[in-house]
Amino acid sequence: MITGSCLCGHVRYEISGAIGDIVHCHCQTCRKAHGSAFSSVAGVQGKDFKLMSDDVLGCYESSPGKFRYFCQNCATQIYAKKEGTEHIVLRLGSLDDDPQSKELSHIWVSQKASWYSLNSRLPEYAEFE
Fold first, then answer.
1. 57 with 78: CB under 8 angstroms?
2. CATH number (domain holding residue 92)
3. What is the pLDDT of residues 52-72, one digit of tens each?
4. Which regions in the chain score pLDDT beneath 70?
5. Which are the contacts of 74, defined by CB distance < 8 A and separation ≥ 6?
6. How far is CA 58 from CA 49, 55, 84, 107, in A?
């Protein structure tokens, strides 16, 4: 069992299955949503993801059909979900445990912030691959 939570602890979750490969997203939307250079994410099957407490879980439709879920108290991004999909996109910064996954790539580097360099051995893709 892998657990995660928001900064203030009001939103908690458990993952009973595997966490997919890790992707670092550099798109402008992720940068703005996280206030960071990029967002590290991984897929989790919806059936394996269980919210343990969600009394302050908020939702924002950041693009048509894509919803971002976050703590309304501390603003920690928890996950995103697109309509019609069976998985969630877990925001790895909210994990309390080791995801036991491997890094796969950097995506949306065409929108990467100009103030840092990628010096990574990982593949880089201009958009989502």
1. yes
2. 2.170.150.70
3. 987 899 999 988 999 999 999
4. 123, 129
5. 6, 7, 8, 10
6. 17, 9, 20, 26
Residue 13 identity (one-letter amino acid): Y
Query: What are the C-alpha distances in Å from 6 to residues 24, 103, 105?
Result: 20, 22, 25
Confirm whether 128 is domain-assigned.
no
Token reading at 14: 């458990």
Question: Is the four-CA dihedral 112, 114, 115, 120 of positive or negative sign?
Answer: positive
Lookup: tokens for 7: 């900064």
Tell me the pTM.
0.86
Check: CB of residue 106 under 8 Å from CB of residue 125: yes
Per the structure, the count of domains in the chain is 1
